Amino acid sequence: xxxxxxxxxxxxxxxxxxxxxxxxxxxxxxxxxxxxxxxxxxxxxxxxxxxxxxxxxxxxxxxxxxxxxxxxxxxxxxxxxxxxxxxxxxxxxxxxxxxxxxxxxxxxxxxxxxxxxxxxxxxxxxxxxxxxxxxxxxxxxxxxxxxxxxxxxxxxxxxxxxxxxxxxxxxxxxxxxxxxxxxxxxxxxxxxxxxxxxxxxxxxxxxxxxxxxxxxxxxxxxxxxxxxxxxxxxxxxxxxxxxxxxxxxxxxxxxxxxxxxxxxxxxxxxxxxxxxxxxxxxxxxxxxxxxxxxxxxxxxxxxxxxxxxxxxxxxxxxxxxxxxxxxxxxxxxxxxxxxxxxxxxxxxxxxxxxxxxxxxx
Length: 361
What we know:
By secondary structure, the chain is α+β, with helices and mostly antiparallel strands. 25% of the residues lie in helices and 40% in strands.
């Protein structure tokens, strides 16, 4: 009777999983923004693209992708490969699992309710959270680094043999808290795997009692101990904390305008690219993608048919319709003035003069 009941429960769960409509997932996850070379399942991504379960996101050098999942936001950094392993929403409850094969991911999950979950899995670790901000890195050697910026994260070594019991195991993990980090290596995971395999071999048949012993062994071997948790440097906290603050959903009208320009430059390539200046940001679009994003520090300097604007790394000259005439990479304070045939740009309080027509010093 018990076997029939268990089988019915499993069958019911399978039917429920398959009955999750496309609309549920469509409303759940999407590409909020992207910069540089970003691909979804091997094809160039578009801002606003809907993401489905098992979609793979890959980013190139100096590229990133912001993803909105329900009320959570994540940023996939450059040279990364991530998978949307689980995207489930039922009756307003959200359960998300992300995979990170290699690269870096910064996560801003929403405050989770009791029966919700947000997991990030790398080849050697699993991180589970309840409303916190953290980053996860995985390198080619399968070393995982997890930093917590506020809140708490439970971290365990990823051992495939007991992964189906991960919910029970992760509950036993001590919290990694604000300004703390954990480093997990492939060698550490192999040692844990070996010990768990020994327990499984000893127990033999997978009876409920045997499974309990395996899970107990897993809690001992897989859970990251408190003594393995380290503090990270204040300068690391400051830099990444600032980036976390910036990760947020952009206004819909801005996203719509950027997407329109991206499409335009994809259909009709413009060698020097297109510039979009909003109230707060500057976007440089070329070859069908956003290549650079900066802040509006000061209003642009204008002539009858051109604008000149500077922000942090670059100075741009563009037509009033946004067509870029020239850009120059030069660290600056964001202040631009026109002086006759010259453009005066301030960097570190010092004035530099550029040619109006070419941008040359």
